[in-house]
Write a structure and sequence with these properties.
182 residues, mainly alpha, two-stranded antiparallel ribbon, 6 helices, 2 strands, binds zinc ion
């Protein structure tokens, strides 16, 4: 019988898992075929990453999965509609992860608006302003796409990281933690 994976190569063994005929090249020390080996490796990797995310979830406040669907919806909509993020921030039960997402959504919106207005001011300056025009035109579509992407991520319970804003929040959180340690 030929090897299942190599045509015209005679088989020397049978896979322990799936009973496919395998040749000397395909066979390994544990009598597994290449596809069963791959399967095993992928399962091990999936288990390892599950463990990793599980460990991170318990430490970091960023995981949003345990937050109720209503709050997550509010936070998700806070990216395209910033007043909702302000509303989430004012809610009575503010988990650290909720607060973080709400502040992040607000910072994302005000940062975009600030960038828009400063580029708008720059665009009024002769010559120098010419380079600001294409950037100015790009801000709104970028903001729109980013806010939709962030909204979907939050809705799915994923932690969202906004460039610059998240780093600033990390720093702030680290400082509060250091202060509360004393
Ligand atoms: Zn097999
Ligand atoms: Zn083979």
């Amino acid at each position: 019988m030929d090897c299942y994976f190599h045509s015209a190569v005679p088989s020397v063994a049978v896979c322990r898992h799936c009973s496919k005929a395998i040749c000397a090249t395909c066979r390994d020390g544990r009598d597994l075929c290449p596809s069963c080996r791959l399967d095993e490796r992928m399962k091990a990797r999936a288990a390892a990453s599950r463990e990793l995310t599980g460990a991170r979830r318990t430490i970091e406040p960023g995981a949003l999965a345990p937050i109720s669907a209503e709050t997550r919806g509010l936070l998700a909509l806070g990216y395209p509609l910033w007043p909702l993020a302000a509303l989430a921030l004012l809610g009575p039960r503010r988990a650290p992860a909720v607060q973080r997402q709400a502040v992040q959504a607000l910072a994302f919106n005000f940062g975009s608006a600030g960038l828009y207005f400063s580029l708008g001011a720059l665009a009024n300056i002769p010559l120098l302003g010419l380079s600001a025009f294409p950037l100015l035109a790009m801000i709104v579509p970028i903001w729109l796409v980013a806010s939709v992407v962030y909204a979907f991520k939050v809705w799915n319970g994923d932690d969202v990281r906004v460039p610059l804003v998240s780093d600033w929040l990390d720093e702030r959180e680290a400082k509060t933690r250091a202060n509360s340690a004393y």
